[in-house]
């Protein structure tokens, strides 16, 4: 208990225990009259003169209940199960985002379609992500964490392995996009007690682990002639997440799972909905725009680098492993670069990492060597890795606490739209100009990220509450 409430003193504990005595109950009847009579009389043998007056100290008859942040071993176990389940959900999201890269050439050959048509997979996923961004805040407030999304995700992945006509696959991707729980996971983690920075870093580190593993499996399965069987693995992961979510969260609402803790803050009395308050925050829109471009650049590289290397650098089917290297670098960056973030300062680190990634992308663009390109792409992933967790932690520093969870959900959901929008634009341009447009487009996105972050910094000050 001392670790939970380091400011507890002996006097505080004495006042706390007084709540349980008849003295406190007598004091509730009439503090003013009791204080007046306390100098002259007693009642039932209890000296009323020992009761505190309002001038002596503030009332302590109602004490805050212990929080979930470790008051018992069962609550610690619950928090651990919550985090493990969230890590599994983010693993599957990373797995899903990194799937397309190694499989795009195989899907093109199977359906005999060009870059533009195959890129409609990203368009339909964008529609799903956009719908998820719109409904995330009200659904999270009303129903809690993912009552239906896990089940719909199972349905979506179950329709892909039979390799049905391409429009069916597009519809499945839309459903996958809608059910991605990135936003809700960010909301949940931001609501848990403890170190938010490390928790957010771990959460997105597991996204990177999933994104690193998917290309390894997809590349192998794609070479067997039964590329659609890869989605059986995705279906299995979705079923596992469904089972763990139902067991751990028990379909409860977020506030039922995590009661208010020491850092909780009551919402001020304002007119309009929480959603309206979020949309009135300029910083939320700037962070959402930055995140959308960042996630778009990340998934564009992972999704199209295999095709780029196959067509322009002479890479064979094994080029799919380069996508895994990129996401592996992304994962490593999220786990090991936190000391660098602290050294540079989180806000300054954003500029350093983007400039480094831009220089490496120029090397990939101008140096026609497969090995050099593969190494440079992996280091690009390393540089991009810390950006997303940094953005989420900066959001926690500058946004009002009472709308923080909903704001993070909105930013994360909007960011996922970029993971579909920009890969589609890449496919559209590649159909007309060739896949060599990949590197100039990505470098342009990096430049846009610097501009958006600069605008955000000029319009933001650290929250002082």
Automatic annotation (TrEMBL):
Keywords: Membrane, Transmembrane, Transmembrane helix, Transport
Keyword Transmembrane helix: yes
Location of this chain's protein in the cell: Endomembrane system
GO cellular component: endomembrane system; membrane
Predominant location: membrane
The keyword Transmembrane is annotated on this UniProt entry: yes
Membrane topology of the entry: Multi-pass membrane protein
Transmembrane portions of the chain: 113-135, 155-178, 199-217, 229-249, 284-306, 318-337, 349-368, 374-395, 402-425, 437-458
GO molecular function annotation: transmembrane transporter activity
InterPro entries (UniProt xref): MFS, MFS_dom, MFS_trans_sf, MFS_Transporter
Entry protein name: Major facilitator superfamily (MFS) profile domain-containing protein
């Amino acid at each position: 208990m001392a670790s939970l409430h380091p400011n507890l003193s002996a006097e505080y504990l004495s006042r706390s225990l007084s709540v349980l005595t008849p003295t406190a109950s007598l004091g509730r009847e009439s503090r003013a009259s009791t204080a007046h009579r306390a100098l002259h009389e007693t009642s039932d043998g209890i000296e009323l003169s020992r009761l505190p007056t309002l001038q002596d100290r503030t009332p302590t008859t109602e004490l805050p209940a212990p929080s979930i942040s470790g008051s018992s071993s069962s609550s610690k176990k619950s928090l651990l199960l919550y985090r493990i389940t969230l890590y599994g959900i983010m693993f599957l999201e990373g797995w899903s985002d990194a799937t397309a890269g190694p499989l795009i050439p195989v899907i093109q050959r199977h359906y005999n379609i060009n870059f533009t048509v195959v890129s409609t997979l990203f368009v339909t996923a964008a529609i799903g992500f956009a719908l998820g961004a719109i409904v995330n805040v009200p659904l999270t407030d009303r129903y809690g964490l993912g009552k239906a999304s896990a089940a719909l995700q199972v349905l979506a992945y179950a329709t892909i392995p039979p390799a049905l006509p391409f429009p069916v696959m597009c519809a499945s991707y839309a459903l996958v996009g809608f059910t991605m729980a990135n936003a809700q996971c960010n909301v949940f983690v931001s609501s848990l007690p403890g170190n938010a920075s490390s928790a957010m870093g771990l959460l997105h580190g597991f996204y990177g682990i999933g994104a690193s593993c998917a290309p390894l499996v997809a590349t192998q399965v794609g070479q067997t002639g039964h590329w659609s069987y890869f989605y059986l693995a995705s279906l299995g992961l979705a079923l596992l997440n469904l089972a763990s979510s139902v067991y751990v969260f028990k379909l409860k609402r977020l506030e039922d799972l995590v009661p208010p803790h020491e850092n909780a803050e009551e919402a001020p009395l304002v007119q309009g909905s929480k959603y309206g308050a979020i949309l009135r925050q300029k910083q939320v829109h700037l962070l959402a725009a930055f995140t959308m471009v960042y996630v778009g650049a990340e998934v564009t590289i992972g999704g199209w680098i295999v095709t780029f290397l196959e067509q322009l650098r002479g890479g064979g089917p094994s080029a799919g492993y380069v996508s895994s290297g990129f996401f592996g670098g992304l994962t490593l960056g999220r786990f090991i670069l936190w000391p660098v973030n602290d050294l540079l300062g989180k806000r300054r680190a954003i500029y350093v990492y983007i400039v480094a990634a831009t220089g490496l992308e120029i090397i990939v663009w101008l140096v026609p060597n497969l090995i050099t390109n593969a190494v440079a792409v992996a280091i690009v992933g390393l540089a991009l890795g810390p950006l997303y967790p940094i953005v989420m932690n900066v959001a926690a520093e500058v946004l009002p606490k009472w709308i923080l969870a909903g704001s993070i959900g909105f930013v994360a959901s909007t960011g996922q739209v970029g993971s579909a929008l920009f890969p589609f634009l890449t496919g559209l341009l590649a159909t007309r100009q060739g896949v060599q447009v990949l590197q100039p487009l990505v470098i342009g996105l990096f430049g846009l990220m610097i501009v958006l972050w600069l605008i955000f910094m000029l319009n933001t000050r650290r929250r002082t509450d």
